[in-house]
Amino acid sequence: MNRTGNILVVDDDNAIRTVIAQALRRDGHRVTTAASLGECDARLASGLPDVLISDVVLPDGNGLDMVGRVTKAHPGLPVIVLSAQNTLTTAVRSTEVGAFEYLPKPFDLDVLARAVQSALARGSAGVAEPIDEGDRELPLIGRSPAMQDVYRVIARVVSNDLTVLVSGESGTGKELVARAIHDLGPRRHAPFVAINMAAIPRELIEAELFGHERGAFTGAQARSAGRFEQAAGGTLFLDEIGDMPMEAQTRLLRVLQSGEFTTVGGARTIRADVRIVAATNKDLALLVANGGFREDLFYRLNVVPISLPALRARRQDIALLARHFLDRAAEGGLPRKQLDAPATAVLEGYDWPGNVRELENMMRRMAVLSRDDTIDANEVRAMLGSAATASSPAAVDPGIAAAVRARLERMAIEEPAALDDGSLYDRIIGEVERPLIEALLERHGRNQLRAARALGINRNTLRKRLDLLGIDF
Ligand SMILES: Nc1ncnc2c1ncn2[C@@H]1O[C@H](COP(=O)(O)OP(=O)(O)OP(=O)(O)O)[C@@H](O)[C@H]1O
Fold first, then answer.
1. Helix, strand or coil, per DSSP, at residue 80
2. Chunked in runs of 10, what are the mean pLDDT values of the chain (473 residues)?
3. Helix and strand totals (H; E) in the chain
4. Which of 11, 59, 270, 275 could be 55's S-S partner, Cβ–Cβ 3.0 to 4.6 Å?
5. d(CA 329, CA 118)
6. Right CATH for 311-395 from 3.20.20.70, 1.10.260.40, 1.10.8.60, 3.40.50.620
7. Range 403-407, long-range pairs (CB < 8 A, 24+ positions)
8. CA–CA distance from 65 to each of 133, 283, 369 (Å)?
9. Where in the numbering of this chain does the Response regulatory domain appear (predicted)?
10. CATH class of this structure's domain 398-469
11. Beta carbons within 8 Å of 440's beta carbon, 6+ residues apart
């Protein structure tokens, strides 16, 4: 059954305030509103609501500072933060100041209604203690809805020790997420230690993880601390966990169950005081189904799953990331460069099989190689090679796209039957092909060999096309 309660909505945008208030009233809640921090303080002074909903940017100050004060003074009051500044900073700051929930704008009213329900259900049963916030730089760039989801999960796990399993294609930022979880949480003053299961010989993985005693195996000349010990108090990042050999999986599972581990070849048992973040670019559930990964270990690791989107699934972040990497290159002493709008469009149209890493590397190369301060679309296309032109809808000149659309519209009026008679492809391509070939012949002094080379077709093909299109040569 739905609970109802007193809700205070703080937002300086009249329309948003009204829409939220109406929706919540429809659900049976009693709603008061405030358009500023001053008004909010006045409402709070005359009585606490059951749930406070607040925007971040308010005309007389920052909503998050107010939320921090309110949650400190009234730890039982659940606060839902709304924000159009959709960064990891806002998501994490919201959690740190003790907010119950963070919703990036624009949000779905149903989602807000559900958040209000769980806030009422939680009531004073316990809201996260506010954490003191220093000025920490947050590394993850991206404002797409897919990244917002990632930020919300990160914000939820930073202050606890739940095991996180990050999955995503290579270069999507899995290690960066692991580091963010470490850097933002209470373990940040202890080490972050990474180990890549795919990069270490299989027979050495257990010794690397748990350490070994002198003489434990051939070549073990001295006692060596493993990564679990090195990461004590901090975070252990198990990269490419899908490549972990079975025996090591069994041992890892025992450690996760008992909270203790034994060094290889030694009787010493050591308490495992680490937070585990694992990552995989393989489908671990599939590996489990095929018998390549222990099911019980999978569940132990997959307590909080974070799935990172491929860059092509969040194209709206590409411009932001590209600028960020150019700025970083400039800070690192390389020439400062910027991208013009068509160049950005080409980047946005490319599929980025290597994800953010590929974009980062390319921006560094552009910073070095591009001649002008402003990088243009041709340079980007040249750098991306044929892949960009072939796969990228954004790489099509907008003028050509508009001309083709206009041609189709004219056809629809003048000869509508042609739209359905199966000749469309040849007709339209023919219309584009003719001026292209003519222009190139002209450019190369009617030298067919050179025109064919420039077109990337052989001379015989060019001749056939000239014949077919009835072009004089
Ligand atoms: N959202 C992001 N914002 C800024 N930089 C990013 C982001 N995602 C990834 N990067 C950068 O891209 C590069 C690759 O990221 P990372 O090493 O975390 O990827 P990964 O998924 O762990 O890759 P792999 O599976 O190949 O190990 C790094 O240099 C990282 O700093």
1. strand
2. 87 91 92 94 89 94 92 87 83 86 86 90 51 51 90 90 95 95 90 91 88 73 83 95 94 92 80 94 92 95 95 95 93 90 94 94 89 91 66 56 76 78 78 86 86 82 84 76
3. 21, 16
4. 11
5. 45
6. 1.10.8.60
7. 404/428, 404/432, 407/431
8. 11, 41, 45
9. 6-120
10. mainly alpha
11. 451, 454, 455
Coil, strand or helix: which one is 375? Answer: strand
pLDDT at 156: 87
Predicted pLDDT at 127: 40
CA of 94 to the centre of ligand 1 (A): 24
312 within 8 A of 171, measured Cβ to Cβ: no
User: How far is ligand 1, taken at its centre, from the CA of residue 318, in Å?
Assistant: 13
Q: Would you state the structure tokens that stand for residue 102, as one six-digit string?
A: 């963070």
What angle (nearest 5°) sits at the alpha carbon of residue 48, between those of residues 44 and 50? 130
The pLDDT value recorded for residue 137 is 52
Q: What is the DSSP string of 160-212?
A: S---EEEE-STTSSHHHHHHHHHHHSTTTTS-EEEEETTTS-GGGHHHHHH-B
Among 170, 176, 312, which residue has the most ligand 1 atoms within 8 Å of its CB, making it the best to mutate? 176
Q: Is the dihedral of CA 178, 183, 187, 190 positive or negative?
A: positive
Exposed, middle or buried: residue 150 (CB in 10 Å: 0-12, 13-18, 19+)?
A: buried
Determine if ligand 1 sits within 6 Å of the CB of residue 170. Answer: yes
Closest ligand 1 atom to Cα of 239: 27
Residue 196 CA: which ligand 1 atom is closest? 27
Cβ 444 vs Cβ 451: under 8 Å: yes
**Residues near 259 by beta carbon (within 8 Å), at least 6 away in sequence:** 271, 272
CATH for 148-307, among 3.40.20.10, 3.30.470.10, 3.30.430.20, 3.40.50.300? 3.40.50.300
Residue type at 401 in one-letter notation: A
Reduced to 3 states, what is the DSSP secondary structure of residue 6? Answer: strand
Q: Say what the pLDDT of residue 85 is.
A: 78
**Measured CA distances, 153 to 80, 84, 122, 146, 170 (Å):** 15, 18, 19, 11, 20
Specify whether the CB–CB gap between 87 and 138 falls below 8 A. yes
Cα–Cα distances in angstroms (integers) from residue 331 to residues 168, 325, 363, 411, in the given order: 29, 10, 13, 54
Q: How far is CA 429 from the centre of its chain?
A: 38
Q: What is the pLDDT of residue 387?
A: 46
Distance in Å, CA 51 to ligand 1 centroid: 38
